[in-house]
Fold:
Amino acid sequence: MASSSPKRAIIGFIFVSIGCIFLLDNLGFDIDLPYYLFSWPAIFVAIGVVNLLSGNSRAAVIFFGLATIFYLHYFRIISIRTFWPVILIIVGFFIILRRRSRPKNISENLDNYFDDIAVFGGTEKKYVSEALQGGKVTNIFGGSEIDLRGSKAVDGAVIEVFCMFGGVEIQVPEDWKINMNATAVFGGFSDSRQKISETPVATVHIKGLVLFGGGDIKS
Structure:
């Protein structure tokens, strides 16, 4: 099994660090750190960093923008009561730019193992591997669309999925046999392919956990 990527390790470290500091603070420990580093605006900064590391630059920009507004309010430079419409303006521009800049042709990736992460954002990837060994999909308040129709899977390849308040759509060839082992809690994971070959060339296992989210296999 492939080891965790540096990007995934950094993102995990960010969440673990923030969680530990908030937990220690709630338990009454005196954390000698500037409060503004671990206030609510800092959460927007952390989400922005996660999206930046995940390649979602536009989502990163919007969260950095929100953090800036809340920090300006925190230091009493502006008042949120007066400038809260700016948040709607930032979100509106983000939606407009995202729609206009949506690529018509997604670049093809030749990796034999993929590691896709979407946190408060979305990703769209296409893989054309000649020997796909599997991959990982992590969505937290985000969504992913993974196109594997141009790939050839190694028999027994494993795709690990974790979705929390998010969803994933995986597009696979008709001649793959999908073995579903994903656990869904207040969510679901289904194979919605209209045509499935009676003579599959490879068996691909999909396992993982879906919390308040969903997953779909399509062709």
In short: Residues 131 and 153 are 5 Å apart (CA to CA). Helices lie at 6-26, 40-53, 57-74, 80-83, 85-100.
